[in-house]
Design brief:
It is built from two helices and five strands; from the N terminus they run βαββαββ. It has a five-stranded mixed sheet with strand order 4-1-3-2-5, with helices on one face. A hairpin with a 5-residue loop joins strand 2 and strand 3. The protein has 101 residues and is of the alpha+beta class.
Length: 101
């Protein structure tokens, strides 16, 4: 009798406010997510914010939510980061992390 291990994934949408465009934020975000094996996407919004979706293990997503809220890319100034549409998934929808235009 084997033990079945079920790994759940977390999905969340995010929006980062402040001086976050023109400072490499999307590239740094992608690099951090790829390093953590998080799938999803990120892009500049027309409102001057950064928006995206992340899917990965709870621990890795927690690390990225902290990075998006408190650290960001060099030269950025984060006012706040909002997270919504938290979901638990059996299988992520994204295999990689991309910058969208």
């Amino acid at each position: 009798m084997g033990v079945e291990i079920i790994i759940s994934y977390v999905s969340v949408d995010f929006e980062v406010f402040g001086h976050v465009q023109g400072c490499g934020f999307t590239k740094h975000c992608r690099d951090m997510c790829v390093k953590r094996k998080i799938g999803g996407w990120v892009k500049n919004s027309k409102r001057g914010t950064i928006v995206g979706k992340m899917q990965g293990s709870k621990n890795e997503i927690d690390e990225m939510t902290n990075w998006l809220t408190n650290t960001g890319s060099p030269g950025c100034s984060i006012e706040r980061c909002e997270f919504q549409n938290w979901l638990t998934l059996l299988r992520p929808d994204y295999r990689d992390f991309a910058i969208r235009f």
